[in-house]
Write a structure and sequence with these properties.
It comes from Sphingomicrobium sediminis. The chain has 830 residues and is an alpha+beta fold. It is built from 23 helices and 33 strands. A 6-stranded mixed β-sheet has the order 7-8-6-9-10-11, with helices on both faces. A 6-stranded antiparallel barrel has the order 13-14-20-17-16-21. Strand 26 and strand 27 form a beta hairpin. The chain binds guanosine-5'-triphosphate.
Length: 830
């Protein structure tokens, strides 16, 4: 060892290596270079032969090194004392010192990092341990809770069993129950599942609001998503077991009309598949649209099912088959309808009969809806009157009225004679095959000529008694109440001849005369009972509306308990608003009423949707047509009026513009009407109705137009005017001349001019012209300029030649024909 030391000690001054090592300063360049060692050594060697140092420098390397090693503060002092000679050494030392410090700092940093890591790891492991411990505690707690729940469920089950056994042993079904508690006990049932098998860990331990409220600390209700997942899983499992399902062939009942959705349901197929199939057949239908029986049959067979055609009779009520035995029939009052031309005095006559003045309150003097009244004259039996309106727009309603009528009274004003609507009424009466009584009214007037009326009636094959015929005629004055009793006598006589009878002791059926949506009472229908007796509490179906009689109100506004044959009565308790003329039938129960109502509604839906384009072809046809549509929304006070208004406006349509009633209904104009109007740009017509406040507000915002009417021809006049405005003025072309293009010249830089020979009429500058080539219109233009022998002219007569520049047209060829015309704009009248 000592030898070694010696060796080392002796070798030190000669150790070039040492010197080199000492100068091996690892300068930390960013790229990692550290090769400055050699430079240091060289520097020393360069300094040694230099002036400043004693020659012993090479030998003195070791002491110098030692010196450097020994005293770190020394260099500073020395440097202060002898700055020049010490300068180089100090620099080297400083670098080394810096390096050393850096090393130390690096070590420190590494150490600190290591310590931090160690701490972190310790903390982590501690945390993991804690969590593990906590989880373990939780699990234990949950297991205990589950056990408790299981115990509860078992107890509850036992309790239920005990109760069931005690109640009735024999009746109890031995159906296998799961481990869950009976359904009647909700709490145990919920915890039944976890009780049956241990709940998964993740479902435990959480205190949810539900759980807290339920107060069960045990099993937790599964989320909807979890249930869904479980069900799907089960389903998949089942499918996996049974393999691909075999297609089930069904017997599908196909009525005369069915929605695609309903058909799909009956077939057990997807509605979308049916729609696709229909599309392939060229039919554009949605799932909610109806298809007819033939189409439905096609679909059913295409999907491999069996068709069972069902007729309407299977669902709907056919009262005609149900005939009452002769001995059950009892006499009933006649149902009388008064018909005639507008203002001939129908309402006044009815007023005279009833002794009440209704006509005074009528808007515009026109009866707006069918009213029904029963009148018992001083002498004679009761008579039921239907007051049918006289305006032609109500024709349809009148036709319905005539069909339930036993006797028709044709009112003809003695001072006016037969008018178009009188003739129309005659035709309806004849079609309905009801006996007629002619009431020649207004005989009090100066111009009254009853005989003339009788003669005019002859033209329509109506021979009155005064003319030796069999049609009773009575001269009356509704105003003066003259001969009203005679008229009633005539009615009674006619009724006797008819021997009108009905069975009052059965379920009622009848006809809806009028229906409306009453603000306070809901849907209300005026029903004329045909046979049977309608009672409060009866279940019925009226058109597409089912209901139960809540109240019956007679024509004097009195509540009645029942209504017999030929009695008009207002019925409350409908599920919807039926239409005038709809059948009203009492049925055995609500289910039957609903079934019939639904069926009828589907038929109505079908009717409505047939107006929509059903096939691709018709859709394209529709697209191609240039007819302008004039949308309208119609709201009226009563159903019959709404229908009449719709019919009246529909009649205004022509090939250029057609009315499209987007929606029509009964009652005030509502918010939804306005929204519909806004979306379709339709004005809303309120016939005897007004909008509610909300509707008004929205209409103002969306700029929806309201039109209010109480007289139908005012309404139709406006519609005509509005439609004419929509079409714009009528453009009429008057051809004034014809010319042939004989040559084509250049005119100016770009334009062409036509050399024309005027064949017919005249050509005028500024007039419209149509250029045709082989009878095909090439362009519509105007004559921009006319020239004859270099002179500008205003017009050129037939037989002469001229040059013409056509506005915006250079497509001119020899042989083209030019038609010159004047345009007249005329206000359109519909
Ligand atoms: N002088 C006279 N005027 C009558 C008579 N009957 C009705 N009028 C008048 O004729 C006009 C029309 O009478 P209405 O009873 O409203 O006639 P309507 O046929 O019901 O008319 P619409 O309801 O518009 O279809 C009224 O001004 C009546 O006052 C009558 O017997 N004599």
């Amino acid at each position: 060892m000592s030898d070694d030391k010696k060796k080392l000690g002796t070798r030190a001054p000669l150790g070039v290596k040492k010197t080199v090592e000492a100068g091996k300063v690892k300068q930390s360049f960013s790229h990692g270079r550290s090769n400055t060692v050699v430079v240091e050594v060289k520097k020393r060697r360069i300094l040694k032969p230099g002036d400043a140092k004693p020659e012993a420098a090479p030998k003195e390397e070791a002491p110098a090194k030692e010196e450097a090693k020994k005293a770190a503060p020394a260099p500073k002092k020395e440097a202060a004392k002898k700055p020049a000679p010490k300068k180089e050494m100090t620099a080297a030392e400083r670098r080394e010192q810096v390096k050393e410090l850096e090393r130390q700092a690096e070590q420190d940093r590494m150490r600190r990092e290591a310590e931090a890591r160690e701490r972190e790891e310790k903390a982590k492991s501690q945390k993991a341990q804690d969590e593990e411990r906590r989880a373990e505690e939780n699990r234990k707690a949950e297991e205990e809770a589950a056990k408790k729940a299981e115990e509860d469920a078992r107890k509850a089950e036992e309790e239920a069993k005990r109760q069931a056994d005690a109640e009735k042993q024999a009746a109890a079904k031995p159906a296998p129950r799961g481990k869950a508690a009976p359904a009647s006990k909700p709490a145990p049932k919920k915890s039944g599942k976890p009780a049956g098998r241990p709940a998964p860990d993740r479902q435990r331990g959480k205190l949810t609001v539900n759980r807290a409220l339920r107060g069960d600390g045990g099993g937790r209700a599964r989320s909807l998503a979890a249930l869904k997942r479980a069900r799907e899983k089960e389903k998949r499992a089942q499918q996996g077991q049974s393999g691909p399902r075999e297609k089930q062939v069904r017997d599908v009942q196909v009525p005369e009309s069915i929605t695609v959705a309903e058909l799909a349901k009956r077939m057990g197929e997807k509605a979308a598949d049916l729609v696709k199939s229909l599309f392939n057949m060229g039919m554009m239908v949605t799932v909610n649209q109806n298809v007819d029986q033939d189409t439905a049959e096609l679909l059913v067979t295409e999907f491999g099912h069996n068709v069972q055609r069902v007729s309407d009779a299977d669902v709907d009520i056919d009262t005609s088959e149900d005939v009452d035995p002769e001995d059950t029939l009892k006499a009933r009052p006649p149902v009388v309808t008064i018909m005639g031309h507008v203002d001939h005095g129908k309402t006044s006559l009815l007023d005279a009969i009833r002794g009440a003045d209704v006509a005074a309150g009528e808007a515009g003097g026109i009866t707006q809806h069918i009213g029904a009244y029963q009148v018992t004259p001083k002498k004679g039996d009761p008579v039921t009157f239907l007051d049918t309106p006289g305006h032609e727009a109500f024709t349809e309603m009148r036709a319905r009225g005539a069909n339930i009528t036993d006797i028709a009274i044709l009112v003809v004003a003695a001072d006016d004679g037969l008018k178009p609507q009188t003739v129309e009424a005659i035709n309806h009466i004849k079609a309905a095959e009801v006996p007629m009584i002619v009431a020649i009214n207004k005989i009090d007037t100066a111009g009254a000529n009853a005989q003339k009326v009788r003669e005019e009636l002859l033209q329509h094959e109506i021979i009155v008694e005064a003319m030796s015929g069999d049609v009773q005629d009575v001269e009356v004055s509704a105003k003066e109440k003259t001969n009203i009793d005679k008229l009633l006598e005539a009615i009674n006589l006619q009724a006797e001849l008819l021997e009108l009878k009905a069975n009052p002791d059965r379920d009622a059926d009848g006809t809806v005369i009028e229906a409306k949506l009453d603000k306070g009472r809901g849907p209300v229908a005026t029903v004329l009972i045909k046979r049977g007796t309608l009672k409060v509490g009866d279940t019925f179906v009226a058109g597409p509306a089912a209901g139960k009689v809540r109240a019956l109100i007679d024509d004097h506004g009195r509540r009645v308990k029942e209504a017999g044959p030929a009695f008009p009565v207002e019925v409350l308790g409908l599920g919807g608003v039926p239409s005038a003329g709809d059948q009203f039938t009492v049925v055995e129960n609500e289910a039957r009423a609903r079934e019939v109502a639904e069926y009828r509604q589907s038929v109505l839906d079908k009717k409505r949707t047939t107006a929509a384009p059903m096939s691709l072809e018709s859709m394209f046809d529709k697209k191609g047509s240039e007819t302008i549509t004039f949308p309208l929304i119609i709201k009226a006070d009563v159903q019959g009026t709404a229908e009449a208004v719709v019919n009246a406006v529909n009649k205004i349509s022509n090939e250029d513009i057609e009315v499209r009633v987007i929606h029509s209904g009964v009652g005030a104009i509502t918010e939804s009407d306005v929204t519909l109007a806004a979306s379709s740009g339709a004005p809303i017509i309120g016939f005897n109705v007004r909008p509610n406040a909300k509707a008004k507000e929205i209409a103002k915002r969306d700029q929806v137009e309201f039109r209010y009417y109480d007289v139908i021809y005012h309404l139709t006049d406006w519609v005509k005017q509005a439609m004419a405005g929509e079409l714009g003025p009528e453009i009429i072309e008057h051809v004034v001349g014809k010319a042939e293009v004989k040559a084509v010249f250049k005119s100016g830089k770009k334009d062409k001019a036509a050399g024309l020979l005027v064949l017919d009429g005249v050509i005028k500058k500024g007039l419209h012209a149509r250029l045709t080539r082989d009878d095909v219109i090439v362009s519509k233009t105007t004559i921009a300029s006319l020239r004859r022998f270099k002179d500008d002219v205003d017009q050129v007569e037939a037989g002469t030649e001229c040059g013409a520049v056509l506005e915006d047209t250079n497509d001119i060829a020899e042989g083209d024909m030019l038609e010159i015309f004047e345009v007249e704009e005329k206000e359109r009248v519909l």
